[in-house]
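In response to a reviewer's request, we include the raw inputs and outputs for one of the modeled complexes. The two entities were modeled together in a single run.
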Amino acid sequence: MSSSASTIRPATFLALFCLVLASIVLILISQGRQSASADVEARAMHDTLTSQLGLTDLCLATEARYTRHPALTDDLAPFMDYPQALDYFPSGLFWAPP
Amino acid sequence: MREYFEKQLNILDYALSSLWRRRGKNFSVFFVFTLVISLLASFQFLTGSLLDSAQTGLRHAPEITVQRMVAGRQESIPVAYADKIKGIFGVRKVVERVWGYTFNEVTGSNITVMALPHVPKLGQETLGEGGFWVEGEGGGAVIGQGVLQDLDLGNRRSFSFFRPDLTLKSFAVRGIFAPESNILTYDLVITTLDDGRDLFGLDAGVATDLLVEVVNPMEIATIARKISETLPGTRVVTRPQILKTYQAVFSWRSGFAAICLLSALAAFIILAWDKASGMSPEERREISILKILGWQTPDVLMVRFWESFVMALAAFACGTILAYVHIGYFQAQLFRSVMMGWSVLRPGLSFTPAVGGADLLLLFALSVLPYLAATVIPAWRCASVATDSALRG
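The model returned the following structure tokens for the whole complex.
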């Protein structure tokens, strides 16, 4: 520690550091709650859409049919291009097989 | 008791001073450790958020979906199967549906086209523009925001897709889904059943799948089993199975990315072990001097414990905060390219990080505890060195 701060215990700096982190966490929590309340309306809309349109999947990865509709795809779809085919789509790294 | 706390506080002071003396090395360790925890936590928060979106967004998914399988592949299902399903006690309604994909050769995108036998009863809040077609009207479509951009419609409100025989099938845009529904509708084109059959070249007697509505949701599994028995060669997907699929898909245990991140963490822990077990002569001399001054081995260990604990806890806190900011404010930019792969249509999703006590506990157990073990155990071996031999160098 620097000589000018020699009278301050090092643990005080740690406490200050913890206080800063706690403040950041509190700010993030309050903002998270605000966005969660905004999500409530969107979720009601999603309920209407899924029930009326019969939707079964989220639109996340549209590169292959088994990543666009994992719930309705048969287990072998990722390997169906030819015998002994591999799952070569990049999002297959992120998604587990359906 | 007060003496004990006073002693611990003094040891903590000494540990912090020791960390500060070697700040160059310690800051680099802190930086790498924070980064590794941040990546692991980001992955955890992202999959949690996606799972939450699936569980809430798909809780009204069709109760039972019936597909026909031929040689392990999905084929069109005869509409006549609907009559057999209606004969099962407890079935309220069976709806035939035609859907599939069309490839836009200009942009290389896959667009989902879904054809329904009825006009959906959707409120105006689900549509950003226009409305649905009226009963009996053909050629109308409601499209998602991604389709609007992908087809570069601008102010035009008509577009065409190729039929299998390469003739063009035209649609008039009646409505556009609101951007808030992007996670469900971004690549969707909703049209009438006749238009869907016309586009995909399907006969009137077949559909892509059948949606079954049951009277009592508690009987979904029973009715699904009865459908399987009545119609062999079909694949019956229930709503709970859809939700379970997403649980499996988004589970942190599965997926290559989680393995990579855990490997990075393991590599870091091994590095920490290596660094801690190979103490420098200066550190050995420091321990020897402390022991000559009357410190016991447990006291030296306590210093090492506090050093590691402060370092690991600070990295854990900073890494977790960084992960939250990455997912909540930067929309998981680091994982987005892996998650969406070669997708041309990429919905602009906004994630709300789902952080639970279990997630934090898991991250803590995966990062802080191994680091403590990897640094304190080698420190114990070094703390028990013979004082005179260490001082002699």
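As requested, we also summarize the result in words. The first strand of chain B starts at residue 64 and ends at 70. Chain B touches chain A through 89 residues (CB under 8 Å).
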